[in-house]
Amino acid sequence: MTETRDNRPEAVTPMIECRGVHKYYGDYHALRGIDLTIRAGEFFSLLGPSGCGKTTLLRTIAGFEDISSGVVLVDGKDMAGVAANHRPTNMVFQSYAIFPHLTVAENVGFGLRRDPRGKAEKAAAVEEALAMVGLKGYGARASHALSGGQRQRVALARALILKPKVLLLDEPLSALDRKMREQMQVELIKLQRQVGITFVLVTHDQEEALVMSDRIAVMFEGGIAQLDGPEALYARPASRRVADFIGVMNFLPTRVVGDTPSGTEIEVPGFGRVEIPASNVSRANPDDDGPSIGFRPEAVSLVAPGAAGHSHVAEGVIDEVVYYGDMTYYDIRLDGSDGFGDKVRPVRIAMRNVFGREVQDVGARANVSWSPGSLVLFR
Amino acid sequence: MASANRSQAAQGLSLIAPPLGYALLIMAAPLLTILAYSFFKDGYLTVIREFTLENYASVWADPIFHKIMLRSLGVAALVTLVTVLLAFPVAYFLSFAVPAHKKSMWLFLITIPFWTSYLIRVFLWKVILGYNGVINSGLTSVGLIEEPLTFLLYNVNSIVITLAHAYAPFAILPIFIALEKIDRSLLEAGRDLGESRAMTFWRVTLPLAMPGVVAASLIVFIPVIGDYVTPTVIGGGKIPMIANMIQAQMLDLDNRPLGSALAVTAMLIVAVFSLIFVALNRRFLKVRQ
């Protein structure tokens, strides 16, 4: 686990602390020693493929799963033996879990039963919570008459009305269509800033995590592979696996020539000899494939052969063109791959289709312009 | 769209036509016959086909009918209450405690009582509850009692015990199905929102299981009111219910019009009670999960 960015002073208050958390289901080792600190007031995401343990971790924080060993602290208090109904956390469930026998207002007010306030005050609080999620006046509706997006808003209002220390969101956007999802992403960010509550989001959608989070923990097989801010995670993934999971990354086999005072000198097919700055070198690379460099499709650009003003250029032939409207993806077969065997696959390059730029044809010669700072070395 | 719907409806109708026809034949036809008889005059051993309301008048004026009808309603209500109260924990255990791959085995076990005929099961209860029955001889031999207990058999309690046992599976199954339909995350949501297990059961599980409870109640209540075997065997003929009274009129006294009027009246009363029960629970039945 590396933290390349966001190493702000320890002044930040921890809201959730997991120390050596293990969880077994029989023989299955679902959480393998999670050490994690989630800061008060941040929008934190647990990102990973299905089965990586992210939902299990969220459910241990909520109190729905016991942990086999380790400690979970919420707001400084040990949660061992504290039942879900006594924890300062509230959850937005993947299915939203809207009570079908209750109206919207009854759903939102469900957790207020033991609230000492009077009936009228509670009703006002419900109305206020509904207004906060944009459902003013929906209180009397039957819950089955709601759309997916509205159900989610009800689930949010129902949790936030209790003013929890932490709001846990279990894949809250996965059931929505793309447009609604993008809209809700923005609304969730705004809502989080407005209420200032720590949000912990579980998602398998890397784009969603990048858009919404202050920090992201990428999980594989019950462990945290990298914990970083979205930019660091995207630009400097700690391992090939993380790089592969977050967005698209091209990988090229590499020969390490040697270490220099400021980084590592390597030789890459088509790129020649390059010095990679130390900040872009990842040693947490468990792959047996040998050293490789990675770069994002948009971190390099396609330039016409012979175009001036490009200090680093790799030459190649366009193998495939995929037109996306706003973007065009080119797969380029690079020259000079000799000596690296057939491990070298075409690299994908993304070009924005700005006005006046023509889409290139398959088979045309093309040059790839790059800079050492846009490459990440995994060794 | 409309024509597509119509042809689909026609298709559906043609699919259910055979069972529908069968049901009409064996249900509606006897029902109509009984209805017709109830308005005919009795001519001692014959039926005079002349319209009259006399039968209904004498049914409503008959204090014995009032007593027996009230007893039938009371027994049926008590049996329903006992059966549903006993069936709910079983259904809950089946739905929440039994692992998914063992549920069908458990359901299979619950059907075991059906492997023997209802009549034999009723007689078995007589063997258990009787003067020289299992309970009495057991208690006597242990020395807890000297004289056999007489309150075990030939009374309303024994009728309720027997019927509650006989109808238990009918109550367990609808409640089990209603519980199975409950999204488990709703229960977690109840806990997450600050409620204990008991309060979550009260505020979430029970309201959502009510359609099953209502169905179970009706499935038990309606046939129990008309039960004939148990009052005869377990009640020893001393505490007749409405079916016994109808039987007496129809066969023993050969007064079919009066027997028919009794049957129709009892049916109407059951229908009214059932409708009131459903109406009282309508807010639970409207829930769409």
UniProtKB/TrEMBL annotation, chain A:
Q: What GO CC terms are in its UniProt record? A: ATP-binding cassette (ABC) transporter complex
The processes (GO biological process) annotated in the record are: putrescine transport
| Domain ABC transporter: residue ranges | 16-246
Is Ion transport given among the entry's keywords?
A: no
Pfam families named in the record = ABC_tran (PF00005), TOBE_2 (PF08402)
- Membrane spanning segments where? none
Gene3D superfamilies registered for this protein in UniProt: 2.40.50.100, P-loop containing nucleotide triphosphate hydrolases
What InterPro entries would the database entry show? AAA+_ATPase, ABC_SmlMolc_Importer, ABC_transporter-like_ATP-bd, ABC_transporter-like_CS, Mo/tungstate-bd_C_term_dom, P-loop_NTPase, Transp-assoc_OB_typ2
**Record key words, sorted:** ATP-binding, Nucleotide-binding, Transport
Q: Does the keyword Transport apply?
A: yes
Q: Which SMART domains match?
A: AAA
Provide any one GO MF term from the record. Answer: ATP binding
Q: Which PANTHER family match?
A: SPERMIDINE/PUTRESCINE IMPORT ATP-BINDING PROTEIN POTA, SPERMIDINE_PUTRESCINE IMPORT ATP-BINDING PROTEIN POTA
Protein name (record):
Spermidine/putrescine transport system ATP-binding protein
What organism is recorded for this protein? Paracoccus halophilus
UniProtKB/TrEMBL annotation, chain B:
The lineage's top-level taxon is Bacteria
Gene Ontology terms describing biological process: transmembrane transport
UniProt KW keywords: Cell membrane, Membrane, Transmembrane, Transmembrane helix, Transport
The ABC transmembrane type-1 domain sits at 69-279
Cleaved signal peptide residues: none
Entry-linked CDD domains: TM_PBP2
InterPro entries in the record, alphabetically? MetI-like, MetI-like_sf
Q: How is this protein annotated for GO cellular component?
A: plasma membrane
Q: Where in the cell is it found?
A: Cell membrane
Presence of the UniProt keyword Transmembrane in the record: yes
Q: How does it sit in the membrane?
A: Multi-pass membrane protein
List, alphabetically, the Gene3D superfamilies matched: MetI-like
Q: Which residues cross the membrane?
A: 20-40, 73-94, 106-131, 151-179, 200-225, 258-280
Family indicated by similarity: Belongs to the binding-protein-dependent transport system permease family. CysTW subfamily.
- Kindly provide the name given to this protein in its UniProt entry: Spermidine/putrescine ABC transporter permease
Q: Which organism is it from?
A: Paracoccus halophilus
